[in-house]
């Protein structure tokens, strides 16, 4: 379903600058969309047109198929449904305290005092600023101001959230946290639109990409479609995403396995061609054609964990008892990722899982889970890029625990499952504290004989 649409949209600033020309876009509900283009290509102007802040010179903007009207009542309705976080937070923040600033939107919508309070508390908690609620916003750092601006929009619970360069001014961990938050909002149904110069972010994060150059749209499609067009990227003064660049180098050297366009580091790792053939010692009862799971020894792990084995087929057995086996990536039984839903959190339970589950790597996603871990002295190995790092750890045979809550549990589960499906590399995935309690999903199936080499 199309939620936001423009038809032949055109805008010219009073000084004659044609900032947006003949722009036609269709944004589907519930999608994550990125507008990418060099400085001055018209992204911010377009965003201001999308929620009625600017009125087009020609063409129209449609929300749910209905053209936007520009009388003050209609505009108030539109701005409630389409929230914008500006590039420069100082353009957005003006109240004497952080709390009042975030409360401004919901109070203006006529919400009761209790509802305003609940919206503000929740938004501040999600962006990790509850403890600064009484501070004057102009005493905050650039990144903190950005979070206040985001909280102010989130508190109004808009259907569409537009963020102009959402990560400018944020440190890398803060940036990952904001992207986690946007993923969570998207998981619960919000359509998220961002502008960015960061091709790596647009490639990895978005469902759909629009490329802008000189006030016009010059390309659109899925990230894979858009970012493989070198000429188009050059025209927009952009470069290829790093993951794709590395992949093409691997491919050029004949080291790539299968044809794909990896988006994340685990996917990139998975494209490396495996060793195909190997000599191993086999016990007398093994026959040619048998399938074996061969335990792989890497360092300390090999002596401790029973989990990793590469599926192999015995091709030939030499009279001295050694055999040539063909290794297959499918069926690697690596480590596992356990997701702990901190909505029903108990420290003794977490400690028990850490002990019984042989967990060697712990991550947390979302402010709430990080704060809980910090408060209870749970050692966190990773707090940003948690899903990808856990997948990489699981691939090395480690068992990981991710503390997270709400929609991020499902988001993480989906990402990990997608990886398992796409790569054919199995590892166990589990969720604790959902209705079924603690459960390792997709637990190891009947494994053939396991050998150590
Ligand atoms: N208030 C204004 N008056 C006149 N021209 C403007 C105004 N604001 C922006 N422009 C011009 O409109 C064009 C599009 O600017 P816009 O800010 O929309 O681009 P952008 O893609 O968001 O750029 P950036 O990536 O640098 O934020 C530019 O040529 C810019 O100089």
Automatic annotation (TrEMBL):
CDD domains: ABC_cobalt_CbiO_domain1. GO terms for molecular function: ATP binding. Its main location: membrane. It is found in: Cell membrane. Gene3D superfamilies: P-loop containing nucleotide triphosphate hydrolases. It is a peripheral membrane protein. It holds the Pfam family ABC_tran. SUPFAM superfamilies: P-loop containing nucleoside triphosphate hydrolases. InterPro entries: AAA+_ATPase, ABC_transporter-like_ATP-bd, ABC_transporter-like_CS, ABC_transpr_CbiO/EcfA_su, Co_trans_ATP-bd, ECF_ABC_transporter_ATP-bd, P-loop_NTPase. SMART domains: AAA. Belongs to the ABC transporter superfamily. Probably part of an ABC transporter complex. Responsible for energy coupling to the transport system. Part of an ABC transporter complex. Responsible for energy coupling to the transport system. PANTHER family: ENERGY-COUPLING FACTOR TRANSPORTER ATP-BINDING PROTEIN ECFA1, HEAVY METAL TRANSPORTER. This is ABC transporter ATP-binding protein. It comes from Methanosarcina baikalica.
């Amino acid at each position: 379903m199309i939620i936001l649409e423009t038809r032949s949209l055109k805008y010219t600033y009073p000084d004659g600058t044609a900032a947006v020309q003949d722009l036609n876009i269709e944004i589907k509900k519930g999608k994550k969309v990125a507008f990418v283009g060099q400085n001055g290509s018209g992204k911010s102007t377009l965003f201001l047109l999308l929620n009625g802040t600017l009125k087009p010179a020609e063409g129209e903007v449609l929300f749910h198929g209905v053209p936007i009207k520009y009388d003050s009542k209609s505009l108030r309705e539109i701005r409630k449904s389409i929230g914008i976080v500006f590039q420069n937070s100082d353009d957005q923040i003006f109240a004497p305290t952080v709390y009042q600033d975030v409360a401004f939107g919901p109070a203006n919508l006529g919400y009761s005092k209790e509802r305003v309070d609940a919206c503000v508390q929740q938004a501040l908690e999600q962006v990790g600023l509850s403890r600064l609620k009484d501070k004057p916003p102009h005493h905050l750092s650039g990144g903190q101001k950005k979070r206040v601006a985001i909280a102010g929009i989130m508190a109004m619970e808009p259907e569409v959230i537009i963020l102009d360069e959402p990560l400018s001014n944020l440190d890398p961990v803060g940036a990952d946290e904001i992207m986690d938050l946007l993923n969570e909002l998207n998981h619960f149904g919000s359509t998220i639109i961002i502008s960015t110069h960061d091709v790596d972010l647009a490639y990895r994060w978005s469902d759909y990409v629009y490329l802008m150059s000189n006030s016009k749209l010059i390309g659109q499609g899925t990230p894979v479609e858009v970012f493989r067009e070198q000429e188009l990227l050059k025209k927009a003064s952009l470069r290829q995403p790093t993951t794709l660049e590395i992949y093409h180098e691997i491919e050029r050297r004949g080291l790539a396995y299968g044809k794909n366009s990896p988006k994340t580091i685990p996917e990139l790792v998975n494209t490396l061609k495996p060793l195909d053939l190997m000599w191993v010692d086999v016990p007398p009862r093994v026959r040619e054609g048998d399938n074996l799971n061969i335990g792989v020894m890497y360092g300390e792990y090999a002596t401790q964990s029973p989990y990793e084995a590469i599926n192999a087929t015995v091709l030939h057995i030499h009279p001295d008892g050694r055999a040539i086996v063909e290794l297959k990536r499918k069926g690697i039984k690596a480590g596992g990722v356990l997701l702990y839903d901190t909505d029903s959190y108990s420290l003794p339970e977490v400690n028990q899982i850490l002990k019984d589950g042989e967990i060697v790597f712990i991550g947390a996603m979302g402010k709430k889970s990080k704060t809980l871990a910090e408060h209870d002295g749970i050692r966190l190995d990773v707090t940003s890029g948690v899903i990808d790092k856990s997948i990489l750890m699981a691939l090395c045979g480690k068992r990981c625990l991710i503390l997270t809550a709400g929609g991020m549990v499902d988001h993480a589960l989906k990402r990990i499952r997608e990886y398992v499906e796409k790569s054919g590399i199995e590892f166990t995935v589990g969720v604790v504290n959902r209705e079924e309690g603690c459960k390792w999903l997709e637990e190891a199936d009947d494994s053939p004989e396991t050998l150590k080499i």
